[in-house]
Amino acid sequence: MTDAPRRLRVLAAMSGGVDSAVAAARAAEAGHDVTGVHLALSENPKSFRTGARGCCTIEDSHDARRAADVIGIPFYVWDLAERFREDVVDDFVAEYEAGRTPNPCLRCNEKIKFAALLDKALALGFDAVCTGHYATVVTREDGTRELHRASDMAKDQSYVLGVLDERQLAHAMFPLGDTVTTKAEIREEAARRGLFVAKKPDSHDICFIADGDTQGFLAKRLGRAEGDIVDEAGTVLGRHEGAYGYTIGQRKGLRIGTPAPDGKPRYVLDISPVDNTVTVGPVEALDVTALTAIRPRWCGTAPTAGPRAYTAQLRAHGEETAVTAETTEDGIAVTFTEPVRGVAPGQAIVLYDGTRVVGSATIATTTRATAGV
Q1: 87 with 192, same domain?
Q2: Which candidate among 144, 161, 223, 350 keeps its CA 20 to 30 Å from the CA of 235?
Q3: Among candidates 74, 79, 66, which has minimal Cα distance to 34?
Q4: Domain co-membership, 318 together with 251
Q5: Looking at the annotation, which residues are catalytic?
């Protein structure tokens, strides 16, 4: 006789969107003792949603509460705004000020949803935290957990969960990750369940920058800091109002009056906060052949010493690329099989072994294919 699945006390993080609502409903339908919680992350919640942008508004908390009522589970709102500001928003601003390109969604998953929230949930006697992420947790025969890509690669979100360690995975539940369904089917399921959020638009971009104007957001906090835009030889081509407003690989919005000698577009190659300079050049100068990354977080046991073949993902919706990686005293060293573009310090690199997430780290330095860049 097969043992019945264990009934868990589950804390379902409900953002007010359709994915987290369906995830909570599925967890309850599976027989778990589910409690819904909405995280109040904004110190000014009325300002965070414009159409389909942002989240964390009063509207979102009301939508989450209505979904919990329909599912028939208890519901609470927890105020984590101060922790979110310190660990996510302030970190985001500091990283840009230092000339790096952070990913606030990874930081939120690491510091808020699976640290602050999980720690509080465990202290209150819950067994797991449930979210609407598309990823899969696999339990091995020895009881250890692995994080894998979602069954549907089109919706896979394992990249932004690559910061979770084995302890956190042991208490993570992703009810949407092991089913191959389209977003339209998730909405149809929500409608069948009577969830009001079935037709609610998805949130996009950075939740705490409701209008999508990252440069404007940073300017309000860091102020104007005019500096030079130069080419690879150091020739001044134009001026900027803050190096923090640029990202490596950026093409649009450079406002350079002098065209390149070959007439081709220029791209941001480097951002130097030390001398407040932005360097631009041809697209081929963006080719990266290797990188070093720091602060690795392993989704399970750390890899053994020596180089190993993996695939890597460099952005949330990016493609996989073949790499060789090995652990070092400071983090990991990665060599790409083929050059890649648009790689910036501050971004996360997530390593995969097949569908399994090996771990993630923060890019510190890059090696360019073009000498002297």
Answers
A1: yes
A2: 223
A3: 74
A4: no
A5: 108, 207
Determine how many CB atoms are found less than 10 A away from the CB of residue 133.
Answer: 25
Structural domain boundaries enclosing 273: 224-285
Strands (E), 104-171: 128-130, 135-139, 145-149
If asked whether residues 173 and 307 sit together in one domain, one would say no
- List the binding residues: 13-20, 39, 132
pLDDT in tens, 123-178: 999 999 999 999 999 988 888 899 999 988 888 999 999 999 999 999 999 999 87
Co-location of 49 and 76 in the same domain: yes
Within a domain: 213: no
Assess contact for 269 and 254: CB atoms under 8 A: no
Beta-carbon count within 10 A of 166 CB: 14
Within a domain: residue 189? yes
Tokens standing for 275?
């001398």
What CATH number is associated with residue 346?
2.40.30.10
> Is the pLDDT confidence value at 1 over 50?
no
For the stretch 234-287, pLDDT in tens is: 999 999 999 998 999 999 888 787 778 888 899 999 999 889 999 999 999 999
User: What is the spatial distance between Cα 170 and Cα 138, in angstroms, rounded to a whole number?
Assistant: 10
Q: What is the CA radius of gyration of the chain?
A: 22
State how far Cα 226 lies from the chain centre. Answer: 30
Note whether 270 and 230 are same-domain residues. yes
Closest among 43, 136, 29, 121 to 21, alpha carbons compared: 29
Model confidence at 102: pLDDT above 80: yes
The rounded distance, in Å, linking the Cα atoms of 115 and 120 is 8
- Map residue 8 onto helix, strand or coil: coil
Whether residue 235 is found in the same domain as residue 322: no
Q: Which residues are annotated as a binding site for ATP?
A: 13-20, 39, 132
pLDDT in tens, 17-50: 999 999 999 999 999 999 999 999 876 655 444 4
Tell me phi and psi for residue 193, to 5 degrees: -80, -5
Per the CB < 8 A criterion, the answer to whether 50 and 208 are in contact is no
**Per-residue pLDDT at 259:** 77
Q: What is the pLDDT of residues 63-84, one digit of tens each?
A: 999 999 999 999 999 999 999 9
Q: Number of structural domains, the chain? A: 3
Q: How far, in Å, CA of 198 to CA of 349, rounded? A: 33
